Amino acid sequence: MSEKTIEKFLSPKVDPLDKWGLLKPYWPAIKNTGYGLAVRIAVRQLYGIDEISDKTIKKLQSGYEKIRRPGFYKHILTDLAKIESCQVNYIDNPFKESSMPTLLMQDLCIWKMFEGPDFEQCGQRPGIKVSSLSDWHKVIDWWFNKYGKYAVAVKSLNAYARDINYEKVPAENVEAIFKKRLNEEELSSEEQKALEDHLFWYAVDKATEHNLPVKLHTGYYAGTGYMPLSRLLNNPGSATALCRLSPETKFVFMHICYPYYEEMISIAKHYPNAYIDMCWAWLMNPIAAKDFLKKFLVTAPANKVLTFGGDYVIVEPVLGHATIAREGIALAVSELVEEKWLSLDDALEVVDPIMHGNARQIFNLTEKEKLLKTVKWG
Fold it and tell me: Is 23 within 8 Å of 54 (Cβ atoms)?
């Protein structure tokens, strides 16, 4: 699909029914991918449509409009997908005061606190005049002091721009660089990295003080046409360096670093503070995700893996993704039993932790739920 067609497809000015005409030539080629399957399953379960086609597209649109009513998030996520709670990374602001705080739990997004950093997005609300590096430290402190106890983790998407090879750079080494950034002077790539590295660790240290796991994007990129695999190849090695530099920090490496997922199993096995999240993996490559889980369960401690994350901006396909994940998990443990790597009792014993218990423990969800039930914005 050309960029012009994609732009038209995503435009709110184009009638939804007309969008099927734009998608139709490409649909047969992608409908059997993980992405396509999630949509097809959701369409079937939500609207009673077995196949998207010229004959069913009006029924699909009508079903979508009928379900999209107040309460549809809870209906789709809780009633249909049987999801206890979600963890949301709100990209437009470090923290979102959700009106459904116990369903849509929030990460504290540290990404723009150190990439750039983004003075407008992160600095405006605290109302702190920033004229030095120590002032920016106070801005970061403000976000953690205000929302740290309510957040379930901190999250960074910075791996879309660079490798996650953050070094511990002292403040005195980047004070002058920060002032150049304040004055909108151009930074060299070395200066930019040094500044990002320092601020990354400042935020990570704050997260560790607040007992918040640190979620880092690894592996595959969303979008199309700009993913440098040579950078992604370095993610696992860089992840091990982070674990060594801060052994008290819980690092949650997202998306199994697909396609370099074999290495992530060894990280979880070797480093006490490393955890691997399978969010998005069942969509990118459901067979690879099943393969990953099978190998993980006979290699690394079973309490170091999180087996699902919807990883959508929109809610409806999460239902399809959850179905794919459950089927994949069932296949993984069933095959381990059939191949005699696990007994049936051992397989059944591991299911609740990997689908539920690990998340509750790693993110301290019992305590977070109690706090979030009392927040004013809920």
Answer: no
Q: Indicate the burial class of 147 (C-beta count within 10 angstroms; 0-12, 13-18, 19 or more).
A: middle
Task: Tell me the per-residue pLDDT of 212-232, one tens digit each, with 9 for 90 and over.
Answer: 999 999 999 998 899 999 999
Contact 53, 43 (CB under 8 A): no
Per-residue DSSP letter, 51? S
Judge contact between 332 and 293, C-beta under 8 A: yes
* 357-374 residue pLDDT tens: 999 999 999 999 999 999
φ/ψ (deg, to 5) at 198:
-60, -50
pLDDT of residue 297: 98
Distances (CA, A) of 25 to 28, 30, 254, 255, 342: 7, 10, 33, 30, 45
Dump pLDDT digits (tens) for 19-76: 999 999 999 999 999 999 999 999 999 999 999 999 999 999 999 999 999 999 999 9
Residue spans of alpha helices (H) in 175-234: 175-182, 189-209, 229-232
Give start-end residues of each CATH 3.20.20.140 domain in the chain: 87-372
Residues in the chain: 378
Sheet holding 251-254, edge to edge: 86-88, 104-109, 153-156, 214-216, 251-254, 274-277, 305-306
Residue (of 222, 221, 216) closest to 249 by Cα position: 216
Output the CA angle 375-369-150, nearest 5 degrees. 55
Token pair in block for residue 338: 């059939």
Distance CA 198, CA 332 (A): 41
Tell me the one-letter amino acid at 290: K
- In this prediction, residue 48 carries a pLDDT of 97
Q: Compute φ and ψ for 193, nearest 5 degrees.
A: -65, -45
Please check the confidence at residue 378 and state whether its pLDDT lies above 90.
no
In the block, tokens 């932790």 appear at: 353
| 0.85 exceeded by pTM | yes
- Beta pairing, strands 305-306 & 251-254: unpaired
Beta bridge partners of 95: none
72's tokens: 């549809």
CATH architecture classification, 87-372: Alpha-Beta Barrel (3.20)
Neighbouring-strand partners of residue 109: 155
